[in-house]
Write a structure and sequence with these properties.
The complex is a heterodimer of chains A (222) and B (181). Chain A has six helices and four strands, in the order H-H-H-E-E-H-E-E-H-H. With 222 residues, chain A is α+β, with helices and mostly antiparallel strands. Classes of the chains: A alpha+beta (222), B alpha+beta (181). Chains A and B meet through helix 1, helix 2, helix 3, strand 1 and helix 6 of A and helix 1, helix 2, helix 3, helix 4 and strand 3 of B.
Chain lengths: 222, 181
Amino acid sequence: MPDSSINTSFIPKKNSGGTGRSVGRRGRLGWPLLGSFLILLLVLAGWVGLELYTNNLEEQIDARQQTLAVERATLNTRAVEEILRADRRMKLADAVLQQHIAPSAILRELEQRTVDGLRYTTLSYEQDGPRADGVLTLEGEAHNFATVVVQADLFKQSPLFSGVAFSDLNKSTSRVSDGVVFTAQLTVPADAIRYRAASPSVSAAAESEVSGTADIQERNDT
Amino acid sequence: MKPIIALATLIAAGIAGYLYVWPAYGQMEVVAEELAEYDRALEKIEEFKSLRDTYVSEYNSLPDEQVRRMETLLPNETNELQLLMNIDVFAGEFGIDVTEIEIAEPPRNSAAAEQNDRTVKPTRVVVRFEDDYETLAAFLEGLESRLRLLDVVAIDIDTTRSFRGGDGYSYTLTLLTYALQ
C-alpha cells in the first residue's frame, strides 16, 4: 500500500477550493452584464421598429394623398355649385316674393274712397324699397272745405292708409275752379300692399312658382 | 470591470432611449395622427359624395320648365338692355307708347340697396309715358304679376299736362327688379 504522505511530484497541487471561488464570482457578474446588453438590445430594436413603423405610416399617407387627389378630381364640383346656386336662388326668390309689393291697390283704394266734388291733380307715391313704408302725396281741388273734411275721414277709415295729414288748404286761385286746393300726405305701410295680401288668388299662383305648379303670367324676360 | 461595463451599457441604453426611441415614438404619433386625418378626410368625401348624389338626383328630378321659370324669376344677372326692351314691349301690349325708359342708380344707403342683406342685386328702372288712367291701372297690375319680379316703388301722376282731350295724363313709374348678387 503506497504511502500517501509521499510526494509524487515536485509540482505543488492547487487547492480546488480556490478554483471554485473564481467561477462563482464570474457567474454573479455575468447576469447583470447580460441583462444590460439585453436592455440595450431591446432599446435599439424598439428604435428600429418605430422607425420602420413610421416609414410604413408615411407610405400609407402617400397612398391616401393619391387617393384623395383622385377623389377630389372626380367630385364634380360644378354640379355641386349648380345645385348650391339653385338652392340659393330658390331661397332668395321666396324671400323676394314675400316682399313683393302691389301698389295698384293704392289706386283701387283711392277710386273707392274719393268723395264726389273732389279731384286730384297730382299723385306721388314713393317707397324706399319694398320693405319700407310708402308715402303717398296727393294734391287736389275740392268744392269746399267740408268736402276735404269728409275726404280726410274716409282716408282715416281706410285699412291701407295711416298717418293721414292734410295741409296747404287754400281757396283756389284757378280760373276754372272756385273751390279749395289741398295737399294730403298719407303713409302706406308696406305690409298693406304686399302682393300676396293684395291679391290672394294671383299671389298663390306666384307662390307656387317656387314649387312650379302654377300658371302665372309669363313673359320672355331676361 | 464587468460591473462597469454593465453599468455603462445600461447608461447607453438609457441615452439611446432618450435620444432616439422617445423622439421616434413622438414622430410616429404625429404621423399616425396625420394618417388618421387623411382617413377622416376620405370618410368625409364619401359622405359628401353620398349627399351630392342624393341632391343631384333630386335636382335632376325637377322639371326643366320649373328650373327655367325660377331663373326667370331671379336671374343670375340683369341684362339691362334686354330688360328695358322687354318692359317696352310689355307696355306696348297695353297700347302704351313709352316716351322714356332708363336704368337709374339705386339711392345709396336706401332700404332697396340693403335689401336681403346684399344677397340680391336690385336694378332700378324709370319708365315715363302718357296715356289714360285705365291703361295705367292695367299696366300696373300687369307689371305686378309678371314672372320676372318688378316692384313698383314710385308712381308719379301729373294731370296738369293732360292730353287726348283731357283724358290722358303723364306718368312716371320707378321699378325695382332683382338678380342674384
